[in-house]
Amino acid sequence: MTKLIFPQSYRCACASGYTGRRCESEVNECAPDPCLHGGRCSDLLGDFSCDCGGTGYSGPHCEVNIDECAASAPCMNGAACRDTDGDYSCQPCPGDFCGKNCQRRDPCQMVRFENCTSCAHIRFPPFPIGLISWEFPFLFFPCAKP
Ligand SMILES: [Ca+2]
């Protein structure tokens, strides 16, 4: 008995995650990218996974804003925390504090000179290593108060 095969006459019902006329191709579930807000997509068999690390979002598609204020209370030194879409803010920092979390003192706020009209932050202070003072670490990590 002769079996006739017509090349264009069949179509497979593919198992999940596969595609093509003979189900020979794996579906790339990352195309188009299902991860929002810069989440990194991993193509799995019949599925995908979004790594939302560092995006400020969570959820299967990185679609849910994380309320950092409720989750970890990141603001320090009495600053009020305000949750924002994909981020949070501790600004304005109270007093001389600065930084995203108001975690440190602003050197320009700490050291004031009578005739100084503006303060510029310098990364490498031009004084000998033997003169390191308590101000030294602050000078190495400039912080412009917003
Ligand atoms: Ca947020």
Description:
The protein is mainly beta. Among the domains are: 34 residues, Laminin (Ribbon), CATH 2.10.25.10; 34 residues, no CATH class. It is 10% helix and 19% strand. The longest helix has 5 residues. The model has no long low-confidence stretch (mean pLDDT 81). The structure holds calcium ion (CA).
Strand order of the largest sheet: 1-2
Measured by DSSP, the beta-strand proportion falls in: 15-25%
Structural class: mainly beta
Instruction: Name the poorly predicted regions.
Output: none
Labels describing this entry:
single chain, 146 residues, mainly beta, Laminin, rod-shaped, binds calcium ion
Can I get a quick summary?
The chain is mainly beta. Among the domains are: 72-105, Laminin (Ribbon); 107-140, no CATH class. The chain contains three helices and ten strands; from the N terminus they run ββββββαββββαα.
SSE blueprint and pairings:
Elements: E1 18-19, E2 25-26, E3 40-44, E4 47-51, E5 57-58, E6 64-65, H1 68-72, E7 82-84, E8 87-89, E9 97-98, E10 104-105, H2 107-110, H3 136-140
Antiparallel strand pairs: 1-2, 3-4, 5-6, 7-8, 9-10
The structure holds calcium ion (CA).
